[in-house]
Amino acid sequence: MLLSGVGRERWTPNDYASLAREGYQKNAVAYRCIRMIAEAAASAPFAVFVEGVRDEAHPLARLIRRPNPEQSGAELMEAVYGALQVSGNAWVEAVGDEVPEELWALRSDRVKVVPGRSGWPEAWEYCVDGRSARIGRAADGWAPVMQLKLWHPLDDWYGLAGRAVPRLRGAGRPGGGAGPSGRTRQSVGAAGREATGWGRQGKGAQTGNASPGPSHPVSPAARPPSPAGGGRGGGALVIEGYASLWGVADLNGDVVQAGAFADSLAKTGVEGVRMLSQHDGRAPVGVWDRIMEDARGLFVRGRIADWSPEARFAAALSRAGAMDGLSIGYRTARARRQGRLRVLSGVELWEVSLVTFPMLPGARFRAVGP
Q1: Which of 29, 309, 315, 316 makes the best surface tag, with the fewest CB within 10 Å?
Q2: Which of 128, 96, 272 shows the shortest CA–CA distance to 194?
Q3: pTM for this structure?
Q4: SS3 annotation, 281-314
Q5: CA distance 226 to 260
Q6: CB neighbours (10 Å) of residue 84?
Q7: Quick check: helix, strand or coil at residue 114?
Q8: Contact status, residue 361 vs residue 273, Cβ threshold 8 Å
Q9: Cβ burial, residue 3 (10 Å; 0-12/13-18/19+)
């Protein structure tokens, strides 16, 4: 057994950035196939059974439904499946004092395996923005990091990315071996949500409200109209709907009280709220022109632009009716417990995303323009 590398980090041999950029972002066919695989796999439900009886109130069931403040269970799994298909590796970190309280997907290009004397991983190093944190095993051997990987015949630590196979097989093909590999690999809209060890704040998914009541009107946050284009072909898709509903609990038991967004909107205006797709902060897909509280909930109106492939894809899905959900990204400012519910009375609104599966099933939008 070769032990010359004991205690030293070893970077993944796959160039994750190139695989993600060339094999996913710049390949329309692979992009679509990968998204379909990721979303379909993530839609498979998980359930907890105790002595043969399904237990929705079990702490593990709640953790699966809302693994962290930023993602629903489906969104986390979408990120995991996406990373696995694009890089051949997926990493999930469990965070908590005595038992796991949160689960976070770690970006594959930021994780290093630190092998021990036996040759197997004894720790993992997570690096971002020049900072690094070592995550080690507990004294009893429990590992807070779980790695999923595709089989690699020549590597004990890292999986083989399916998108790397055509590059190896097709050296003699025009275009550097872009021929079929027999597999389509995936990344996901949620995969860009970099659930790192830095700045884990309470940015969450769609919510509702605990006790219906009169609306708390605020001056509608609105932006002046601007050209609809910004990309090829011009013509944005105008949409409107409700990003939050008063008095309606979401799938994680969170509700929003009327007026919860007032302070945030007064401070940032509509310009401070981003329009994303699947909470992917790297590529906004449009702009919100109007955000206001009314008697029903948080009303939004905006334009899906055509300035990027992600935006055009989001518009196409919306036109076809394949994506019509809304989900908010926020930080909780004020909240209280009410039985099994968490009532949010103050919310810092960061973004409103177009999503396939909203945490609040009633949070929907519709196309009202071209």
Answers
A1: 29
A2: 128
A3: 0.44
A4: CCCCCEEEEEEEECCCEEEEEEEECCCCHHHHHH
A5: 29
A6: 27
A7: strand
A8: no
A9: exposed
For the chain, the straight-line distance linking the first and the last C-alpha, in angstroms and rounded, comes to 64
- DSSP assignment of 42-72 equals HTS----EETTEE-TTSHHHHHHH-SBTTB-
Do residues 366 and 240 touch, judged by C-beta distance below 8 A? Answer: yes
Alpha carbon distance 16, 83 (integer Å):
10
124 vs 106: CA distance, rounded Å: 11
- DSSP notation for 159-179: PPPGGGHHHHHTTTSHHHH-S
Q: For residue 257, what pLDDT is reported? A: 93
Rounding to the nearest 10 degrees, give the CA dihedral for residues 49, 53, 54, 59. -60
C-alpha–C-alpha distance, residues 347 and 264, integer Å: 7
Give the separation between CA 367 and CA 236, rounded to whole angstroms.
11
Cβ 270 vs Cβ 291: under 8 Å? yes
Tokens of 338: 């009410």
Measuring CA to CA, how many Å separate 305 from each of 24, 147, 187, 274? 21, 37, 22, 13
For the record, the structure tokens of 327 come out as 């989900």
- What whole-number distance in Å separates Cα of residue 196 and Cα of residue 199? 8
Give the long-range contacts of residues 36-40, CB within 8 A, separation 24 or more: 37/81, 37/85, 37/184, 37/186, 38/78, 38/81, 38/82, 38/85, 38/186, 38/187, 38/188, 38/191, 39/78, 39/188, 39/356
DSSP letters spanning 205-217: ---B-SS------
- Averaged pLDDT in 10-residue chunks for the chain of 370 residues: 43 60 75 82 87 89 90 91 88 87 90 85 86 84 88 86 50 33 30 30 34 36 44 69 93 91 93 91 90 95 92 92 92 89 92 92 89
Residue 10: the pLDDT is 46
Scan for tokens 């946050």, then name that residue: 221
